[in-house]
TrEMBL record:
GO terms for biological process: carbohydrate metabolic process; glucosamine catabolic process; N-acetylglucosamine catabolic process; N-acetylneuraminate catabolic process. It comes from the Bacteria. The keyword Hydrolase applies. One of its GO terms (molecular function) is identical protein binding. Keywords: Carbohydrate metabolism, Hydrolase. The keyword Hydrolase applies. It comes from Actinokineospora auranticolor. GO terms for cellular component: cytoplasm. The lineage of its organism: Bacteria, Bacillati, Actinomycetota, Actinomycetes, Pseudonocardiales. Its EC number is 3.5.99.6. Residues 6-219 form the Glucosamine/galactosamine-6-phosphate isomerase domain. This is glucosamine-6-phosphate deaminase.
């Protein structure tokens, strides 16, 4: 695609097609800057009256641990702001893990059950980290991993520091759907734009299957779509 706006339009169209076929589809959303044009394009479709997302359900990919619930950078708050509000969806349409729980392993297991009870994820939207991570599955995460607590690499903390006042504020720990959890979604749609993602995209799409590149697990998925702009495609 020529640019990130076009990536957003195309991915929003894929979600729109899904909810036209299945109005109560469960759509997994990702945070970070890459999916923002997708949400903007989907919201535009809703405002234009071409897509009805009124019954769509939304679930969360990952969450920081240790941020107070009222912090604006909890991924729950970001999804509220960037997805639920613009699409006119209520908190009842939303499923997410509890990153503030005292018993985090229990909260992770509960989230796995909640996703299953909800009928499974119909489409999972993904971004990609510059090191090839998906969700917060950092390099060397097992392809068999389930929702669990992870420690961030320093590179990911530095990459995400732009959303915080300082690097010190970026949590070290997160809960994230595992690679096996993500792979249970019926359709995976990964979006990326910009030169900084070119190497990760090339390794994920054309490199060997390797835990060091978590996104290479998409090669095993029967229905995975990768939508990139020209800069992110430049190493393919
Ligand atoms: C975070 C999120 C990922 C996201 C990545 C890339 O680490 N947990 O889901 O894909 O950031 O973010 P960006 O799109 O801003 O480069």
């Amino acid at each position: 695609m020529p640019d990130r706006a076009a990536v957003g339009e195309l991915a929003a169209g894929v979600i729109a097609d899904l909810v036209t076929r299945k109005p109560d589809a469960l759509v997994g959303v990702a945070t970070g800057s890459s999916p923002l044009p997708v949400y903007a394009a989907l919201a535009q479709r809703v405002r234009d009256g071409v897509t009805d997302v009124g019954r769509m359900r939304v679930c969360q990919l990952d969450e920081y641990v240790g941020l107070p619930p009222e912090h604006p950078q909890t991924y729950r708050a970001v999804i509220e702001e960037e997805v639920l509000r613009p699409l006119g969806l209520s908190a009842e349409s939303f499923l997410g893990p509890d990153g503030t729980a005292d018993d985090l392993p229990r909260a992770c297991a509960d989230y796995e059950l909640a996703l299953r009870d909800a009928g499974g994820v119909d489409l999972q939207l993904l971004g990609i980290g510059s090191d090839g991570h998906i969700g917060f599955n950092e390099p060397c995460s097992s392809f068999g991993s389930r929702t669990r607590v992870k420690t961030l690499t320093q590179q990911t903390r530095v990459d995400n520091a732009r959303f915080f006042d300082s690097l010190d504020e970026v949590p070290w720990h997160v809960v994230t759907q595992g690679i096996a959890t993500i792979s249970e979604a019926r359709h995976l749609v990964l979006v990326a734009a910009g030169e900084s993602k070119a190497e990760a995209i090339a390794l994920a799409v054309e490199g060997p299957l390797a835990a060091i590149v978590p996104a290479s697990a998409l090669q095993l998925h029967p229905h995975a779509t990768v939508i990139v702009d020209e800069a992110a495609a430049s190493h393919l």
